């Protein structure tokens, strides 16, 4: 929302500087995000002054230059060489002094310097219109009226206008601040509460709304969506350019002037926060305006020339044959005001905010009107605004009001009433500011005090604040005007200090990020909101477990994510399509799920139905490519598994101590799920072709999703112990075993550790073979064993004995055969 300093002063007379106004608006809750100075002429003609030509003689070395002496209101006149044919002694002119920067009408920038022109010093330039940016004339210098006073700044003599505009970041509940009167009201309340002189003056329209003839009739067939609707008929208007004051007001807030009638509606929008619409009566078929719901599939071409399809829940302004306007959102191409319009129908209304929001969202239209209607404008101010707009149309476009306003009210639009206790007010504020201060603030904000006692009062909430319904809401209004910064902190403060948990979650997160970054991974951060379509065909994360948004911004952001994997695949797809295909990515974030299990009607049980958990997800993906040394392989399943092993080892866990199960087939083409003591730790594998196809990814992607809660639990149990490095060497032995396909390396490792608990340090799988000479249903594993005795050197006899024991255990437990 853009607010003009000069426009504010139309309603509030004050002596505050623009910076002071910005600080006050921010303190009252209308946060000023940016302040900009606007000048009618760039630079404000700083350095240009009125000068009197005291003497004008021809230049001795030129047939067209003149040497002038100018009175600029100082002790000594200035000498200036001028080439204009119309310069003469006795004239009053505009002089750009040395150091002045000018921007010409063509946009060229000129900086005035002391110079010599054909041997004669010149201390400035006598200016023409185009050189000052005031016009296009260059046939000669500007000659001012004889009463111009030498030394007067050009800005003051020409009465150049300057303004300050504020960009305000509105919160959703402060739509009243999306108007100059709303901002001026807050400014006035602040001034009253803090003893700053300010005079509050609202425009008081005096035009009579009763005229001769018959007004255009109105029919409202959707009263729930249009609780209040007003129409005024004005005939004999002349559409044309707006006056300068109106054009200046609109230009100041970044709106392009169109014509006097349309500009008046935009002016009222920024003045009162009330959207208006004007229809050309000659285009209303049947001579009647109908406020109704659209027909399912009904089409309309809007003012931007786009044909839009409506649904039965959309509200429209129509005539007997067509849609004239999508109510509260956008006008139709047929029905708008043109230069040939002479009779107009002025519409003001209060529409159901929910209806307008849903229509605007579904059609993808975010207009100034919908922005205000969907947040709830003042429902009781529509007639006052209609009178104001009608008066401006009569004054600026001529014409006369025909008949009486047509006003249709459906439903209760009464003001809310709130009981206030002074004791509770001061308790919530944290300071006794006095009941008189409370009443001053409330009255300045247009709260009506209906009844008062020593302990409190009952107030009627102004209709422009549709969100204020409770005592605490009113206290917030009082406090924002009184000023949060004016509430002193108590002398003594109580605070509790809790010990940092071990391990420190933030330290672990930082350590994990550093570790993965050093391994070549890049961190990604995706939106927690995602597309429900991702889960429609999945059993691992079924669609019914999605946490759905009641009012999603779009169909692509309608649920909370159940996993980080879909978001990561989006990122991978985006990077691949932007020529970055070799990727190592990780993301740490929360996932959400709806798991019904609570009792219906119990608030606590309702919350129990929702689960939020942090996950760490790794992605590895790279296409096969050729290099000068040969073909480079794709990203590897075992590469990712290696990173998972490193992460587990970093927190004192061995991945081979985990129980394993196949990874879910709807997400992974192959992979494993790891758990420890019944707690799921990680799922990793190759993403299935179906999922890759859904994201338009043609290269393999390997992913691992880790439960951060399990990781932290295991990290808390990890006890670091130190011991002396062994003095005696390791011994390595290998075994090649023929095994059934059903036997896994994890099974063999578990058996080996159980068989030799003291001297076996590690077991690794370094080769898997299937092929000729290997029976069907069989495979060959090549295992490497590392043995070490910390007390003495192992002899060949001792090693052979251990290896024989291991082989026997494999033969007995898994049907292994030595090859």
Percent helix range: 25-40%
Order of strands in the sheet with most strands? 29-32-33-39-38-37-36
Mean pLDDT metric: 91
The separation of the N and C termini measures: 80 Å
Number of helical stretches of at least 4 residues? 21
Category from helices, strands and their pairing: alpha+beta
Q: Bin the strand percentage.
A: 25-35%
Beta strand count: 43
| Low-confidence segments | none
The best one-word shape is: elongated
The gyration radius over C-alpha positions equals 40 Å
Largest sheet: 7 strands, mixed
Structural commentary:
This protein has a seven-stranded mixed sheet with strand order 29-32-33-39-38-37-36, with helices on both faces. The chain has a five-stranded antiparallel sheet with strand order 6-5-4-7-12. α6 crosses α7, α7 runs antiparallel to α10 and α20 crosses α21. 26% of the residues lie in helices and 28% in strands. It is an alpha+beta fold. β8 and β9 form a beta hairpin. The protein has 21 helices and 43 strands.
Can you lay out the helices and strands and say which pair or pack?
Blueprint: E1 2-4, H1 5-8, E2 12-13, H2 18-27, E3 31-39, E4 48-58, E5 66-71, E6 78-82, E7 92-96, E8 101-103, E9 109-111, E10 115-117, E11 120-122, E12 125-126, H3 129-132, H4 154-157, E13 162-169, H5 180-193, E14 199-200, E15 218-220, E16 228-235, H6 244-252, H7 260-272, E17 276-280, E18 289-293, E19 299-301, E20 307-309, E21 315-318, E22 323-326, E23 330-331, E24 343-350, H8 353-363, H9 368-373, H10 382-397, E25 400-409, E26 417-421, H11 422-429, H12 435-444, E27 448-452, E28 456-460, H13 471-482, H14 505-518, E29 522-523, E30 529-530, E31 559-560, H15 565-576, E32 583-594, H16 603-608, E33 610-621, E34 625-627, E35 630-632, H17 637-650, E36 659-662, E37 668-676, E38 679-687, H18 689-694, E39 701-707, H19 708-717, E40 731-740, H20 745-755, E41 760-769, E42 778-787, H21 796-814, E43 817-818
Parallel strand pairs: 15-18, 29-32
Antiparallel strand pairs: 1-13, 2-14, 3-13, 4-5, 4-7, 5-6, 7-12, 8-9, 10-11, 16-24, 16-25, 17-24, 18-21, 19-20, 21-22, 22-23, 26-28, 27-28, 30-31, 32-33, 33-39, 34-35, 36-37, 37-38, 38-39, 40-42, 40-43, 41-42
Helix pairs in contact: 5-12, 6-7, 7-10, 12-13, 20-21
